[in-house]
What does this fold into?
Amino acid sequence: MAETRQKEPFHWRTGIAYKTRPKIVIRGYDLNDLTGSLDLGEMAYLVWRGELPSDAHGKMLNAIMVCMAEHAFSPSSAAARMVASGGVPLHAGVAGGLLAIGDLHGTFDRPAALFQQGVARARTEGRSLEEMAEILVREAREQKKRLPGFHHPQHIRDPRSARLIEVGQKLGVAGPHLALALAMEDATERHMGRRVWLNAVGVSGALLSDMGFEPELAKGVMLVARCVSLVAHVYEEMTRERGWRASGRSEITQPLDLELQRPEFYDGPPDRAFPAERRRP
Ligand SMILES: CC(C)(COP(=O)(O)OP(=O)(O)OC[C@H]1O[C@@H](n2cnc3c(N)ncnc32)[C@H](O)[C@@H]1OP(=O)(O)O)[C@@H](O)C(=O)NCCC(=O)NCCS
It folds into this structure.
């Protein structure tokens, strides 16, 4: 007979926070001491990383979150609005938008991982960051892989990048990860036939790496910041637009208008008879 292992009765296990009837303690600090003293970026840093940020890290995290809080129509805001058009509650629309954040949109984790691996590899192989940048861009070109954190399909040269770099440098946060990222941007001219610019996601991934964020936690920064946008888009969809987004009475052609899905736009199997033997009574 299998031996039954003696287990502790169930209890939660966490290093983040605890609460009792009269108090709430976050990473060792009484919540009431934090309230009114920290801004939201500093609070997020404490909750995520376990320690209060330095002044520079707090300012940098806030700057990244402000920069990422809204970006007009991108996959997540468009997705949130379509979900909201089904008549769901606010949080369901926001969750729908968050689901569009992936490897191609809002991907803070992939450039962070690329730059962290690149800096580590340069150290192991005894190479300069410039040499490593050449190797990484050449390898991506040879393997026909796109570089995460580079290019923007709407802006081409992302207008947010230079300002984030400037803030990172002024605050003294910019370190080897941003240096590698910038050297890779230079290397694209030699290996890709033209300059492929770092986008704001790439710069953020580099700066968060310089602040010691693991890639997954860097992704968390994007998720929280973009929620600001998603709440606004879903709320506006609920209050300004007609549900369903198909109404012919709207002054703008709607995305679900039948005119946009005419039979001539369909390229699946042609109309055909359903087999008589498969028909059920
Ligand atoms: C976002 C993305 C999917 C847009 O791709 P797209 O719609 O095909 O973009 P464009 O049509 O403007 O691309 C034009 C050319 O730029 C180049 N290019 C685009 N993104 C590139 C990248 N990340 N690395 C290297 N070259 C890139 C390619 O040569 C492309 O031409 P091709 O399709 O003939 O290969 C793509 O840029 C990408 O995968 N970026 C990395 C992920 C990322 O950082 N996402 C966050 C965006 S804020």
Q: What stands out?
A: The radius of gyration is 24 Å. The pocket of coenzyme A is lined by residues 104-105, 107, 146-153, 192, 196, 199, 201-202 (CB under 6 Å). The chain has two domains: 16-53, 66-243.
